[in-house]
Amino acid sequence: MPLPGRKVFSANRPPTMDQCAICHSDVCEAFETAPHRLTLTRAASPDVLEHFAGKSFSFENDGPLVRYENRNGELWLVSTTFPDSLRVDWIFGSGQHAQTPVSVLKNPDGRTESFQHRVSWYPTNTLGVTPGLEASPDMHEGLLQLVQPEDHVITMDCFECHVTHLPHNDGLINEAHIIAGVGCDRCHPGGHNHMASVEDGAISMERWSELSPLESVNRCGECHRRADQLTESELNPDRPVLTRFASVGLTMSACFQQQSAVKVDQPDLNRLDCVTCHDPHRPAVKDSAFYVRKCNNCHGGDDGMAAECASQPMSSNCLPCHLPKQRMTDDLAFTDHWIRVRK
């Protein structure tokens, strides 16, 4: 099945979640707090202002002091090394890992470009350096000490992964009509057709269970990266940056690649893709025992099952050994989904 891709740029506005909730109220209610739903927020949101306003951050090596201020309900960046203030327009990230401020502008061609701020908010309720922008601010001058300029193409790519609908006119984003966050129609395309079919007494909707495991993971990988987008040398499990791309690591795992060889009494239990462990409509489960049970659906002593662990009892917590947390920065850690035996 085709991936949704750039359907977010369609001139046709997709159904709202309120429309979907008429029939799917339980799913939509749970989805209100899901990270996908919250992955793009207007900087004027009260929650954002609470996270950023009044907080300061100082770069190392006598770099600039950065401070965020609430000015009449808007978030602004001020610094000791730049004479003007910079308004923040959007916040990228749900806050589960981080939230990064972004300021947008119109370039001379009339198209939207952006500034990604070099400072982000972390769940420790502190500010720190934005992942990937760790280079010393001493390398830059003026405003570039504080932000990373992104051209039009990169700006549109970034927004694409954080929205359900991104209306624009000749490359100038219509910010007032963005549907922020990954909503229903982003993962279940064809919402209008589905609603019409229900009214006609039928139900027409693409089901993720009908996708192959690879198609399913690659659907997530449209934003979380796909293995086929990387070179052989880049697909090295020792590269720390790959930890950020869970869909890449998962498809490279023996557990994923050999899943069809596992035979259990309930075949639906041995399917492995992202939604095996993560309900995209809800925050991720924090209980390690939940994930151990998922592993044990395939790993056991019965004929046809995947091998048991030779080092620890199968009831033990296998995550620290096979899916450990890898620290990217002092403030940020990701679970490494390249499941393997580690030396």
Model description:
The protein is α+β, with helices and mostly antiparallel strands. It has two domains: 5-184, no CATH class; 209-335, no CATH class. The chain is 24% helix and 21% strand. The chain has helices spanning 17-21, 25-31, 46-52, 152-160, 184-187, 191-199, 213-224, 246-252, 254-257, 274-277, 288-296, 319-322; strands at 40-42, 56-58, 65-71, 74-79, 82-87, 90-92, 100-106, 112-117, 119-122, 126-129, 147-150, 163-165, 168-169, 172-173, 179-180, 325-329, 332-335. It has a five-stranded antiparallel sheet with strand order 1-6-7-8-11, covered by helices on one side. A hairpin with a 2-residue loop joins strand 3 (65-71) and strand 4. The chain is globular.
Structure characteristics:
343 residues, alpha+beta, five-stranded antiparallel sheet, four-stranded antiparallel sheet, 21% strand, globular, disordered N terminus
